[in-house]
Amino acid sequence: MNNQxxxxxxxxxxxxxxxxxxxxxxxxxxxxxxxxxxxxxxxLIVGVIVIMIGAYxxxxxxxxxxxxxxxxxxxxxxxFGVTVIIPLVLGVFYSLTNWDGIRFTEIIGFGNYAIMxxxxxxxxxxxxxxxxxxxxxxxxxxxxxxxxxLCTSNLKGIGFFRAAYFLPNLIGGIVLGYIWxxxxxxxxxxxxxxxxxxxxxxxxxxxxAFIGIIVVYIWQYAGYIMLIYITGxxxxxxxxxxxxxxxxxxxxxxxxxxxxxxxxxxxxxxxFLTLTSAFKQFDVNMALTNGVGSVANFMGxxxxxxTQMLALNIYNTAISKNSYALGQAKAVLFFIILxxxxxxxxxxxxxxxxxx
Length: 356
Known about the structure:
74% of the residues lie in helices and 2% in strands. With 356 residues, it is an all-alpha fold.
């Protein structure tokens, strides 16, 4: 390729890049100004395609392969940006306004954040969500690991047990909540009445209803965690286990001295998954109790949402109460809490892996 062709290709490439960027900026501007123009979405997509073509046509041999790699990764990166990054940035911005779900008229700064910490129901939701996470992060991993040990033993019908334990995870949270609501309100009440003479459902009181949510969550999620632990346990070298048997180690010593240290990375993954999943608990909470539960004299107020966890509280604030800006502020705080706790957990678990 001579110099004249190179210059021409550069001009074409840079022109396409400029046109594509202008189209994207114009489409975003039309969206922010709530313009009635209907083709701003296609304009954004066409602008992205034009930028990709311009980047591909840029005449350089040194970075051409990098450009091609970026172009192939672009659909995934673009989807991630549109569905995660941009909504996150817009959410932070809307939390600082009086946004009503459609438009905003003024920027009120941290007013929404000040309001939400004055709500006893929101503070209570944070409190029970933290309790829920602590209980489930421990119990789900213990139950899942125990099931994994059972399903990696020499018992007959292990395939059936694996499928049976994993099956609850395939049921949607809403359906699962209504199924267990029927069990708690009808089946168990008959059993309790038969032995204790009382027909009170465990969902009638806040404390027992909270335990019921924990039970349902463990029943649903332990099978999924079990499969991850099974994968980790099957990766333990058999020669190491055989050497421990020759040295006279019993099953308990083998478990705590060999198997658990060698699946430290698996424990980190399972702990992270249970932590984030428990924090985001929504569907079972809504279907099972819908957050209903009485709490007397919390921050000087009587609460009727004693089993309402953080995700459900955010949903009710935005949808039921039509306070989208306040709900968005709560969601931003939720993201910050979840990100900080997750990073802390991964950091601590990684240090434990090194020690093991």
